[in-house]
Amino acid sequence: MSSIFTGLVEEMGEVLAIENGEKSLKIKIKCKKVLDKSKIGDSIATNGTCLTAVEIGENYFTADCMYETVKRTNLKRLKAGDKVNLEKSITLATPLGGHLVTGDVDCEGTIASITSEGIAKIYEIEIDRQYMKYVVEKGRVTLDGASLTVMRMTDSSLSVSLIPHTQEMVTLGSKNIGDHINVETDLIGKYVERLLNFSGEDKKEGILTREFLLENGF
């Protein structure tokens, strides 16, 4: 069953070790909060990437990363001592304070600029243009697992604003121009695109009908 997160970072963990394999890697992370009531097999978002805990100790967990994960995310760039954003997958009893996040990273983005604006810092993130269609101004985006509001955008970049508290609570606050960020765009936008492009017999001449939506669970 797929895991869901909120994009509300519970804590910043510390990379204890990275073991590189052939098109894979094993990562060991020091942490505390996300281990509460966790067990082997549970999902823990690490820099926004859904990972399965294969080993859990008193103050760490270990996860294996397959090739697709290594290819798409910044986990391949980590080294011992680096900080990572962590969040356990939610249950039906978990308050939804951010937005629905799958932990399936779309791509890496690159920090293009960092500017101060009053008490806040504005981070401009450049991403592959093909994913900008899922980004809307004042919508939500997940950067290294943190749910943030898009304040402005261009054809190939999006900008978010971090107040001092958020700068201290997530890894983005300590990153620099040129650093790579995991980006997960809005889940709903992807489903809408799929529905609009679906070639089923109930979708005629590119028009999305009420009947089509009802029959497909919407």
TrEMBL record:
CDD domains per UniProt: Riboflavin_synthase_like
Entry EC number(s): 2.5.1.9
Catalyzed reactions per annotation: 2 6,7-dimethyl-8-(1-D-ribityl)lumazine + H(+) = 5-amino-6-(D-ribitylamino)uracil + riboflavin
Gene Ontology MF term list: riboflavin synthase activity
Classification via InterPro entries: ATP_synth_asu-like_sf, Lumazine-bd, Lumazine-bd_dom, Riboflavin_synthase-like_b-brl
Keyword vocabulary terms for this entry: Repeat, Riboflavin biosynthesis, Transferase
Lumazine-binding domain mapped to chain residues: 4-99, 100-196
BP terms from Gene Ontology: riboflavin biosynthetic process
Domain of life assignment: Bacteria
Lumazine-binding repeats mapped onto the chain: 4-99, 100-196
Assembly, per entry: Homotrimer.
NCBIfam families: PRK09289.1 (NF006767), ribE (TIGR00187)
Protein name (Swiss-Prot/TrEMBL): Riboflavin synthase
